[in-house]
Design a protein that fits this description.
The chain is mainly beta. It contains 3 helices and 21 strands.
Length: 289
């Protein structure tokens, strides 16, 4: 194993983790795939199969040894290397002693750091991704914190960064297909679901994002006790108290609440970058358009 570089985390936003594409095929064992909350932002950074995901308040680190290419992508963040500002997203060459500071920008909740190599953490069930719910994979199965030191080793393959896209437009509805249990909701409730605004709450993590139903769309919904079955990222569950929750990458393997809708895969990434307090709307689409 050849070490290309080593670095130390000097500041880490809550829920900053090691991720890769995800741990697919393990849901039958009760383990969600994990992976980047924003797959599009992850692709912007390019690099090895694994990298770091950090949340809204950013990440600081120092390169302890080596020289390496680093790619930055995801939401709009501010980037400085040794105090000098750089554009975002971007790709830079870093050398031993460089200090990198990533701080909040004008939009977004998740950002990504990927190197021209792999993060040296164990490959667990075919992936280096951190599952924060199961405490599995990544760096000791947990979120990163100041003082953690990681190594970057030679990667079998590297991926070119994908050109950056424009920031998500706030007034564009999120596309969904009607869920498995949509027919359990009254016609008027389904109509109100697509004609009303919901608000992203502060109660969110990699498992799910709760929405504020200020219009009272689901205040009349009855608590439904269903046989639990498999869920996927983007499923919109209606909890027993009428609270909508959008399931994300570290979702539970099964759920017993009715699912009125499921976001399209591309919309899950866009939704992940929406900040708390933002008003959002939903629009249904069919499988053919």
């Amino acid at each position: 194993m050849t070490v290309l570089a080593q670095f130390r985390i000097t500041r880490a936003a809550p829920l900053s983790t090691v991720q890769d594409r995800g741990r697919f095929g393990a849901l039958g064992f009760g383990i969600a795939a994990s992976g980047p909350m924003d797959a599009i932002g992850w692709a912007q950074a390019g690099g090895g199969e694994s990298g770091l995901e950090f949340t809204r308040t950013g990440l600081d680190f120092m390169l302890l040894s080596g020289t390496i290419e680093a790619g930055f992508g995801g939401g709009g963040f501010a980037l400085k290397v040794n105090g000098t500002p750089h554009p975002w997203p971007t790709r830079l060459s870093l050398k031993a002693g460089d200090r990198v500071s990533i701080t909040p920008g004008v939009w977004g909740m998740y950002g990504y750091l990927r190197f021209s190599g792999e993060i040296d953490v164990p490959n667990v069930i075919g992936s280096r991704a951190t599952n924060t719910i199961a405490g599995l994979g990544g760096f000791e199965g947990r979120a990163l914190r100041a003082g953690d030191e990681l190594a970057v080793i030679i990667a079998e393959t590297t991926i070119e960064p994908v050109p950056a896209e424009k920031p998500p437009e706030r007034d564009v509805p999120f596309r969904f297909v009607w869920g498995l249990h949509a027919d359990l909701f009254e016609t008027s409730m389904r109509r109100d679901f697509v004609s009303s605004s919901f608000f992203v709450s502060h109660r969110l993590d990699r498992m799910g994002v709760r929405l504020e139903d200020r219009a009272g769309v689901f205040t009349r919904s009855q608590h439904l006790s269903l046989v639990s079955d498999s869920v996927v990222p983007g499923d919109i569950q209606i909890l027993g108290d009428g609270t909508p929750i959008v399931l994300m990458r570290d979702h539970q393997p099964t759920g017993g609440y009715p699912r009125i809708a499921t976001l399209l895969s591309a919309e899950v990434s866009r939704f992940a970058q929406i900040r708390p307090g933002t008003a959002i709307r939903f629009v249904p689409v069919s499988l053919t358009r």
